[in-house]
Amino acid sequence: MLTTCYPRPTLLCLPSNHSPNSSFPHRVNDLSMQPKSTGISRRLVIGQYKQYHNTSIDLPLNRTQPFGLILPGPINSSSVIDQSVIIRPTSYEILESGMILMKNHINLNEQVEIVNICHKLGVGAGGFYRPTYGSGSKLRLHMMSFGRNWHPETKYTQLYRSDGSKPPPVPGVLVSLVQTLIQDARARVKSPYEIPSMCPDICLVNFYSVVGGLGLHQDNDESYEGLTKGLPVVSISIGDSCEFLYGHTRDKFKARKVLLESGDVLLFGGKSRLIYHGVNKIIPDSTPLSLLQKTMLKPGRLNLTFRQF
């Protein structure tokens, strides 16, 4: 079931008690997001940082130089050729019972704010790192936890990482945003009981390089009570697009595919809470030009997944 709203209306207003210090504005019609096609100006801008596109994620993480999301140096505005602004419509698609995709739902200013928050916290204590298994193999992404530390082997059992750092709490402005996203999703499904309400106290922040990915898996490490209630996972995508897989088994060839683009929100809870899902591939050079200009975000996909333990 696909519902399209065009032109984009005012979507969400954060609760009146959200932090006045946040730069999140009230959600308004956003006319600044550029089309996803690779245009001349996109190639010119990204070409200045071509050396970053082929950076191997297998290089050892330099502990003296934290992993950040922002490219060094300013973008040369003289090399950017203006493109006509094309408004991307906002749409809502029910993928499964309790699973809804809200396209273009996070506007440009909010995306910029999220990038800045994650970059600032990511270079600090408890910031981005490469999760490593006991065998020495590493996940094909950089990760940071808010609220609770998570590790692919120890799950949520360890309060501190191996380097002694403790994860920062989920930023309050993001908690407010997620709760509002859930309210909007609940209004779009047949019954609000398909997607239960929740208050996120955990956020896993993943950054995938252009060669990153993640195999099919279930998010089943939260509390038995939360899983039984089907409390939803709320996923926000920023930066490069990805080919996202989901299905009822771990069989990649039986999984369905959907394109997740910058500004998209995916929620899965209720009957779909334990659905298998993964990132098959990242689409290079697909970050919206306007986001690249405002953030200098590294090539790759930033993904925030919120849940309640």
Automatic annotation (TrEMBL):
Q: Does the keyword Cytoplasm apply?
A: no
- One cellular component term from this protein's GO annotations in UniProt: cytoplasm
Every Fe2OG dioxygenase domain range: 199-309
Cross-referenced InterPro entries: Alkb, AlkB-like, AlkB-like_sf, Oxoglu/Fe-dep_dioxygenase_dom
**Is the Oxidoreductase keyword given for this protein?**
yes
Q: Which GO terms describe its biological process?
A: oxidative RNA demethylation
Please tell me where Fe cation binds in this chain: H217, D219, H277
Mind listing the UniProt keywords for this protein, alphabetically? Dioxygenase, Iron, Metal-binding, Oxidoreductase
Q: Which cofactor does it need?
A: Fe(2+)
Cofactor binding note of this UniProt entry: Binds 1 Fe(2+) ion per subunit.
A family per Pfam:
2OG-FeII_Oxy_2
Q: Which GO terms describe its molecular function?
A: broad specificity oxidative DNA demethylase activity; ferrous iron binding; oxidative RNA demethylase activity
| Record-linked PANTHER family | 2-OXOGLUTARATE-DEPENDENT DIOXYGENASE FAMILY PROTEIN, ALKYLATED DNA REPAIR PROTEIN ALKB-RELATED
Q: Which family does it belong to?
A: Belongs to the alkB family.
Name the chain's protein.
Fe2OG dioxygenase domain-containing protein
| Source species | Tagetes erecta
